[in-house]
Design a protein that fits this description.
By secondary structure, the protein is α/β, with parallel strands linked by helices. It has helices at 24-27, 36-49, 103-109, 122-135, 162-173, 183-186, and strands at residues 10-15, 54-59, 88-92, 114-120, 139-148, 152-153, 159-160, 179-181.
Length: 199
């Protein structure tokens, strides 16, 4: 992190911050990190204040039983972190925000080479998008306290606690596909050497 510097080529990706994830039972229950959305909002405010590139990723599920399927309330963005006018929205139908979308083009045409990734859920769309970002040559950072997940049941019926799933998911990304860090570390003044919008 010593040589990392946030600049106009650093985009914030907010992934699947949608109302459908408030149905905890559907996703496995026992969600960890209840402060995830507040952390995402704090980061979003920082990016807006510095007029940095922001991408909102929206999942349009093709599963008829999913709370995230289109044309229902669960598909909508959570109000706290909803896009403002002029912020880019990328709609996807699979785990990766790069598959079936023009996200890679939208990033590269703007000269963006570094991604800060937050949202839901740690072991699904965060993980898949981060892995692809790394493979595509982007420098990726995942904010540990800006992600969350739910309990998972293994093939043999073993139930895995959401915090364990979250921690292992992040450990699997760190050092290979991305750098994992906490939001307070990312927001340290030493990494922000660009002028904020004072208007």
């Amino acid at each position: 992190m010593e040589q990392f510097m946030i600049n106009q080529n650093t985009a914030l990706l907010l992934i699947d911050l949608q109302l459908g994830f408030d149905n905890h039972t559907h996703w496995g229950g026992n969600r960890n990190n209840p402060n995830c959305e507040q952390v995402c909002f704090h980061l979003l405010q920082q990016w807006r204040n510095y007029q940095m590139p922001i991408f909102h990723i929206k999942h349009n599920s093709t599963d008829p039983n999913s709370p995230l399927r289109p044309n229902q309330i669960g598909n909508e963005f959570k109000p706290l972190t909803a896009p403002m006018s002029g912020e880019i929205v990328i709609e996807k139908t699979v785990n990766s925000a790069f598959i079936g979308t023009d996200l890679e083009y939208q990033l590269k045409v703007r000269g963006i080479d570094t991604l800060v990734i937050v949202g839901l859920t740690t072991n699904h769309c965060i993980s898949t998008t981060t892995r692809m970002a790394g493979n595509l040559g982007f420098t990726a950072f995942v904010v540990a306290d800006g992600t969350a997940t739910f309990d998972r049941v293994g093939f043999d019926g073993t139930r895995y606690d959401s915090q364990l799933v979250h921690d292992i998911g992040l450990a699997s990304l760190h050092g290979e596909f991305a750098t994992v860090l906490m939001s307070d570390e990312l927001l340290a003044d030493k990494f922000w050497q660009i002028g904020a919008n004072k208007a």
